[in-house]
Design a protein that fits this description.
Strand content: under 5%
Radius of gyration: 26 Å
CATH architecture: Up-down Bundle
Number of strands: 0
Number of helices: 21
Shape: globular
Length: 573
Amino acid sequence: MSHADDSTPVEPADGPSTEGATTVASRDQEAPSGASRKRAFAPWVFWPAAAIILAFVVFAMLFPQIAEGLFGAVQTGIVGAFGWYYVLLAAVFVVFALWMGLSRYGDIKLGKDDDEPEFSRGSWLSMLFAAGMGIGLVFYGVAEPLSHYASPRPGVTGNDNELAGQALSQTYLHWGVHAWSIYIVVGLGMAYAIHRRGRPVSIRWALEPLLGDRVKGGWGNLIDVVSVVGTLFGVATSLGLGVLQISAGLSAAGIAEPTIVVQVVLIAAITGVTIFSLVSGVTKGMKWLSNINIVLAALLLVFVLVSGPTLFLLRDFVQSLGAYLQNVVGLTFTVSAFSGAEGEAWQGSWTTFYWGWWMSWAPFVGIFIARISKGRTVREFVTGVLVVPTVLTFLWFSVMGGAALYREVFGGGGLVSADGSVDTEGALFEMLQGLPGGSIAVFGAILLIGLFFITSSDSGSLVLGMISTGGDTEPKTWVRIFWAVVTALVAIALLLTGGLDALKTAAIITALPFSVVMIGICVATFRAFDDEHRKFLRAQRRQFRDSIGDHFGLEEAAHPRRRPLGFLTRRPR
């Protein structure tokens, strides 16, 4: 275990030289052999995962109506049978993340004892924020608060002002601490495996403290196959959402109607840009695109804040944050148990979908935040990952969603139809068009989503390539192209078999097997941290005995212990 003051080995004044406590705690951790590091392909991961995914694509494209009915039935079955499990598991992951950060394990360093952070704290925090920004925030930034206002969770009642007030609290639940705690489970386990133990970048190694050498065989292959399938469907879900919203934006701008043909063409075109960047070797340009994404998102946020009801949005941010903190425990464990089929349908469309989506995204985001966190302590890692992205996400929703709610409650309305439905794909553009200069902002939002699509596809192919090649941090170009194309095919297949509902179903289904892997990662991480802590204490005691020597016994004899109940007895005079 690494402590801020204990990272240097202690040299006793008398007696032989002893190894530092922190070094002893981790000296037996061996890195994998060089051969395993250099292996550029893992056939027992790549081919099974590819076969499963391609079989899904073929089935969905050849029999879209049958597939749509089957997916709907499976979603209903999983939500009905496992909705409570998803809700409980998300709560467990929050407790796990807080426990790791606040407990005695918080001083463990995610790296060797003398490793320093690779990035400054400011750069690191900005990259964490970038990891949290994505298509989903843009897609749901306006639509989700509006939906919770227009069609609240069964059992929630009140006037317009009360319903608008609870809308952001419900949204914060889905995008806040719970989402990032899910990422922490994978990210923390991977950071310890990669930086502390020197393991390859592959999910299986996060379970090594639990499974031992079995991660090198069939169990490890199975874990990575599940991770690849879950990650791919998670990325495909995001890309599908992005295309739905881009096509809605083109419709709002009067360029093209949002037909399935337009959506397929968009997926093909944007994936083509990703493939071109991979083939031409200009992938370094993706870093610039990522930075442009953040700048565009910040500009869009500032535009809405300044051109919208500024003071209301600032007040709403503070009030909604307080409401979330006041109700977060109750919201965490809400499963709509007394709301029947209506409650199950709502859970499947929102909370269960989100917990499934975040779990399927966990390998993607977890590996990213693990790789940039070398040299951080567990406490720094948990605090940074939980606090910064969560607060900035809340700010995004309070501005984007708050502007829409203000227009609906106090302004001209028009964002919620007469039957209480919300145009999920087009709500952002309708809200922007109601602001001064909104027409220009619409094109900016379309560009933002398109860039997010490109960077998500590129990053997704990289993570999938790393996992499917046994942890190669620079997978071969053809591997990345393969996964980029397959991800696009899955997104198209999901759009053909039900659009948004199919995208949600995919996230819920693929998260179920990976949730078991995440439980294993929790157990493995605890076991690894506890083992290191015990080694640290033993080494510390050994240092203490070597430093004090025979004087320890003399000091003890000179200061006899008092009786257990000595404070109740009289001292002899």
